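User: For a benchmark we're assembling, each entry needs the component sequences followed by a predicted structure for the full assembly. Here are entry 17's components. Please fill in the structure.
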Amino acid sequence: MSNSKLAKEFAAIVGAKNVLHTESDLHTYSYDSAVLTPSVPALVVKPCTTEEIGPVTRLCNDLGLPVTVRGAGTNLSGGTIPHPGGVVLLTNGLNKILEINEEDLYAVVEPGVVTAQFANEVAKRNLFYPPDPGSQAVSTLAGNVAENAGGLRGLKYGVTKDYVMGIDFYDVNGDLIKSGSRTVKCVTGYNLTGLMIASEGTLGIFSNIILKLVPPPKASKAMMAVFDDIDKASEAVAGIIASHIVPCTLELLDNAVIRYVEDYTKAGLPTDAQGILLIEVDGHPAEVAEDAEKIVKLCKKIGATYVQAAETAAERESLWTARRNALPALARARPTTVLEDATVPRSQIPAMIRGVNNIAKKHNLSIGTFGHAGDGNLHPTILCDRRDKKEFARVEEAIDEIFDVALSLKGTLSGEHGIGIAKSKWMEKETSRATLDYSLNMKKAIDPKGILNPGKIIGG
Amino acid sequence: MSNSKLAKEFAAIVGAKNVLHTESDLHTYSYDSAVLTPSVPALVVKPCTTEEIGPVTRLCNDLGLPVTVRGAGTNLSGGTIPHPGGVVLLTNGLNKILEINEEDLYAVVEPGVVTAQFANEVAKRNLFYPPDPGSQAVSTLAGNVAENAGGLRGLKYGVTKDYVMGIDFYDVNGDLIKSGSRTVKCVTGYNLTGLMIASEGTLGIFSNIILKLVPPPKASKAMMAVFDDIDKASEAVAGIIASHIVPCTLELLDNAVIRYVEDYTKAGLPTDAQGILLIEVDGHPAEVAEDAEKIVKLCKKIGATYVQAAETAAERESLWTARRNALPALARARPTTVLEDATVPRSQIPAMIRGVNNIAKKHNLSIGTFGHAGDGNLHPTILCDRRDKKEFARVEEAIDEIFDVALSLKGTLSGEHGIGIAKSKWMEKETSRATLDYSLNMKKAIDPKGILNPGKIIGG
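Assistant: Structure for entry 17:
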């Protein structure tokens, strides 16, 4: 079927103005935030009600057309790169917060609600939605769920999956599947909500999502500790956990990142420091004060060369500026920024950082490492130029070796960015052939024609 | 194949002494803790290593023999009642705690570890495993995961699923499937760990499980508040949540339960009270003291006729005795105790209790209601005699109506007991035909011969 004929079929469901098919539209939706080759879809379809998702999906299935759901396209593993000639189903028109229930501490949202906007609406009611992926200013909640997005608060508050109580989604026949509940406890039927989380649009297309809310912390305090040795910084992380303090944020910047950030911001960071920890504790004011004092003492005892606790909101803000600027500072150094998220049990961070530094040296690459030290989720970031084929071949070898190190330390390929098409080739190494077969079998039964975001996660 | 020939086949894998097939053995494993008709298996097979689970499962599949995994048989929805002529796979020999990692806050356990023994081992290391289902003294961890068991701490600490980081399990071919990780963040592949939770042995047979641990609370305080009106008790629950206090436990006993408990324990409970709340807060000592004071004030303001805060460990113990005795006190009143767990958003508790009381009156039945008011998970408990067919027909009608009320209040069939065979017939009412078809399709692909605990959850 020609693209214009196809467009008419979809226009009958969502209206002609919600079917995009000019060349520039199609190129706009041919890539996401991962460093991968773009792929041009045949059409972009933008439902204006969640009910329209059903017939759109059914039509794709009837025509055997691959369909890739896209929220804001902030995906870092290629999960929103469409199949060539397929359909992009755009959810940004489905952005209503349907309910914020203050008595029962949940909210019901349409898939395309922007994460930060939702968190702000919730905060206005003096409630708290903790997941805070780096892309929260533009990312959508359904995208967060489809990727099980993480963020800085993973250690204390968990990740997106810890806040999803229920998901309604459409199957390939366009029928609505209901899973989960507005109740904290629900064991009615298979945990399809759990199965949908991190399924990257390959098992169903999300409609409304029920999210858990919590009361906000009453107080918080941010600190910075500077170390002349990365192992000492890791020792401080271990010491904090061993003291049974669970910071809401516990971030690490290595020397390379510190230098790039200072070069970018001129904020006065010590460029000879080998590691900086940025730490925030929250909770009851008495607990926050005690924990902050303990952390400052502990960092000094371990040999921090400088420790600062923010006394004002402005001081707190300035501490977090360093962390927020890590990725932009790295990204401006070279044309291509490959942001990895191999993750290890937190006690293995020193070994992981040593491993990454050895790999950088071996392949003559610039790799800066920052990330969520509290939950072992580091972001080794490779600075390169994708157009330089020789260099990029070394980058690909380095990524291979980074995964090998993470797995040898009982870690995982991806902490929060997803598998998408970027990492599916490594899946068998971490799991097993039988695990992939189990997954492929299940996928085949749910999506016999293979139209739901084909090629993602498990290939297939 | 004759049972004795079958026994030999399994004995070749697990050893003759681990295949039970005397009549008394078979009857022992023909029922669980649900009020349902027993069903006698052909054999009981008891692996002594998790590696033996693979060949046992494969043999069942080769022979087309239904296999039901059983831990302690504390299941309340018939999930561990075997298929007639099938195999019971007993996990109580697989009870090793393989690792408690204090640095990285996780543990790795074999499936048959007893919940309370695990919690105690963890506590010895000054760590905390919060899920506390009522059967924890004997229930197994794999059973808890297979049912997504809840307990008293759901409101603040969540349920079993919130503590499962990874599950290795065997598929019908006897191959080991690996899911999840030792890291807090992991998005590598489908969330098969999530899918396994609450799957009641129908999608795979669990081997080792990775569980999350947390630091224990530093302090706690228990309180009791007595009300002459159940709506006031519910108002107190709402008031506590609205004050942004999240108690670790927030339990309710209605008048019927109070009377049965007092009759059993002679502890001096006020038998004319219409509702008792048992509340415990935990956390930092300053927060605990403040929260306890606020709760006492709030309960008095709402009109509690009596409020007591436990000042000593003995006083705390005596408060909790009433709650612990609720089920035994009800169970001794009549020959049959039907313990339901329909769950509603917590603000709907007064409507739910009114509904249950109307149903009791209409069908001339004794129903006592107690349970986890904080998370809306109530246990209407019907006292009856199953041998009295007329009465039991009324009980079945009452259960139907209890579910109708829960669903009309946006609740769910089961908060923590599972669907099993007891509630599968109501599944479509809560979800949809398409939801069941999606589930059946998936199940069929994973288990083509239908050997994994057939008939549970979705029938089929």
